Amino acid sequence: MMINLKNLTISKARGHLIKGDFKAVELAQSYLDRIEETDQDINAYLEIFSDVLSQAESADRKIAKKEGGLLSGIPLAIKDNILIKGRKCSASSKILADYVAPYDSTVARKLKDTGAVFLGRTNMDEFAMGGSTENSAFGPTKNPHDLSRVPGGSSGGSAAAVASGEALASLGSDTGGSVRQPASFCGVVGLKPTYGSVSRYGLIAMGSSLDQIGPITKTAADAEIIFNAIKGKDIMDSTTIETADLKTADSKNIRIGVPTGFVENEGIDEAVLKNFNDSLEKFKSMGYEVKDINLPNVKYSLAVYYTIMPAEVSSNMARFDGMRYGLHISGKNLIDDYFLTREAGLGKEVRRRIILGAYVLSSGYYDAYYNKANFVRTLIKNDYAEAFRNVDIIATPTAPSPAFKIGEKSDNPLEMYLSDMFTTPANIAGIPAISLPSGFKAGAKNLPLGIQLMSNYGREDILFGAGKDFLGE
Ligand code: GLN
Fold first, then answer.
1. Rounded Cα gap, residues 91 and 101, in angstroms
2. Measured from the CA of 427, which atom of ligand 1 is nearest?
3. Of 58, 57, 99, 59, the residue nearest 82 (C-alpha)
4. Which of 5, 50, 199, 388 is least crowded, fewest Cβ atoms below 10 Å from its Cβ?
5. At a CB cut-off of 8 Å and minimum separation 6, what does 107 contact?
6. Atom 5 of ligand 1, nearest CA residue
7. How far is the C-alpha of 81 from the C-alpha of 100, rounded, in Å?
8. What is the three-class DSSP state of 216?
9. How far is CA 369 from the centre of its chain?
10. Do 317 and 127 form a contact (C-beta atoms < 8 A)?
11. 207 Cα–ligand 1 center, Å
């Protein structure tokens, strides 16, 4: 049978699978056909798994016996920095090109337990460092809405896969916006959960105090389903916290705060600002209260992020020395091996961040940079704590511009970093944030835009509630 993938969501597919309208194998085959047809243009996937149909068959057997979990037979795409036992996991880097995961990440294990079908692993910026997927060692991913543009990053493959109908939903990781910004560029939903609500065990680390795994989906309801499937305390990640099972929050009496002074800066595209204000009007018309708030220190987020993140990157990347994982190039002696392997295996942006991080952590500059940034991090957290006494949601655009052209910013790292101005604060504070598709740039149907909603720790329920109101599902 022909399954119409275009408007299919997890919730609908689940209903069809249970009713027997189609089988998981047929659904999986439809996605494989779609991938075959479109992925040569988009390059969302690094690999399509060879056992997709047998995964789906086993889901069908469970569904028939009424044993299936919540995601039984649901085809998902997984970012290539999330370990799935026995499968390659390269983080889109040459240094890990042939690395095979020896164990399951906690999220992969949880998704398997609930019956999900893994279609393949998606392209990304190398080690999740970037905002366009151009830093992949395996070629860029293209934006499904306009093949001359980037899909955003670093989870660009995961967002493009969902937007192009090559997966029903996907997982990404978000250190400074890598789930939300590509979701916004591709016109889909992306959630960065509260820090600690989803286990990082088996996620290739970038900035450990900032990283969270999150879903990319077509609807807020689907993001909620995946979040509920992957969240929870995990003994393998000591930073995880117990998460309450919250019902979707009631939209009555929800107050949205807008940090107007922060949003209206010279770096923001006029069309983005207009779309953002229109989205706020829509929330008002649905009964939400919208008011101005002040977050005095949040403007320092980008500087804080690009100090703390590289420091953590430089430390996390030390393990890729050619001895323990992946690529190994032999030289005259051990030190030579390190140099040769890292030079051949790591791309330019990764090396830039290792150098930057080693610098901000060096004894002469530690206080001036790393310590100072940590101090300001506390001020930013305090701004949010103060604001959440008076509002339930804080809204900004997700990104200051729509998807840019491939090559437009790749020679100018600073320009690329500015694209993260609205997304990094939530990682710095550890609060949850969701990007919702908010329409298109006026007069440009190929350029989707997104609105970002943030809430207090553990209050993803408020984001799902507002997301469902805004999108209708
Ligand atoms: N674009 C940001 C960066 O380059 C965010 C990356 C991420 O969230 N992994 O660091």
1. 11
2. 8
3. 99
4. 50
5. 82, 171, 198, 199, 202, 203, 213, 230
6. 176
7. 11
8. strand
9. 27
10. yes
11. 9
Structure tokens at 14: 């689940």
Q: What are phi and psi of 71, to 5 degrees?
A: -110, 25
How would residue 1 be classed by pLDDT, with cut points 50, 70 and 90? low
**Burial annotation 51-84 (CB, 10 A radius, 16+ → b, else e):** ebeebbbbbbebbeeeebbbbbbbbbbbbbbbbb
pLDDT of 444 above 90: no
Does the pLDDT of residue 249 top 80, yes or no? Answer: no
Cβ atoms of residues 245 and 378 within 8 Å: no
Q: Which two tokens stand for residue 135?
A: 């830093």
Is the separation of the CB atoms in 381 and 441 below 8 Å?
no
372, containing H or E segment: helix 372-387
Q: How many angstroms is it from 129 CA to the middle of ligand 1?
A: 5
Whole-angstrom Cα distance, residue 368 to residue 113? Answer: 47
Domain 10-230 has CATH 3.90.1300.10: yes
Strand partners, 77: 120, 170
127-165 pLDDT, tens per residue?
999 999 999 999 999 999 999 999 999 999 999 999 999
Please tell me the predicted confidence (pLDDT) of residue 442.
85
Pocket residues: Cβ below 6 A from ligand 1: 128-131, 154, 174-178, 206, 309, 420
Torsion from C-alpha of 157, 158, 163, 166, nearest 10 degrees: 90
State the chain's mean pLDDT as an integer: 96
Residue 143's pLDDT is 98
Locate 469 and state its tokens: 């109101």
Q: In the numeric block, which tokens belong to residue 284? A: 């008002």
pLDDT in tens, 305-324: 999 999 999 999 999 999 98
Residue 245 is predicted with a pLDDT of 66
Closest among 287, 89, 98 to 173, alpha carbons compared: 89
Do the beta carbons of residue 158 and residue 118 sit within 8 Å? Answer: no
* Sole residue written with tokens 């300001």: 376
- CB-CB contact of 42 with 160 (8 Å): yes
Taking residue 267's Cβ as centre, other Cβ atoms within 10 Å add up to 12
| Residues with catalytic roles | 79, 154, 178
Asked if the model's pLDDT at residue 39 lies above 70, the reply is yes
pLDDT in tens, 319-364: 999 998 889 999 999 999 999 999 999 999 999 999 999 999 999 9
Pocket probe mutation, ligand 1, options 124, 125, 150, max atoms within 8 Å of Cβ: 125
**Is residue 251 predicted with pLDDT exceeding 90?**
no
| Residue 281 CB neighbours (<10 A) | 11
Q: Residue 266 burial (CB < 10 Å; 0-12/13-18/19+)?
A: exposed
Looking at this protein, which amino acid is placed at residue 460?
A: E
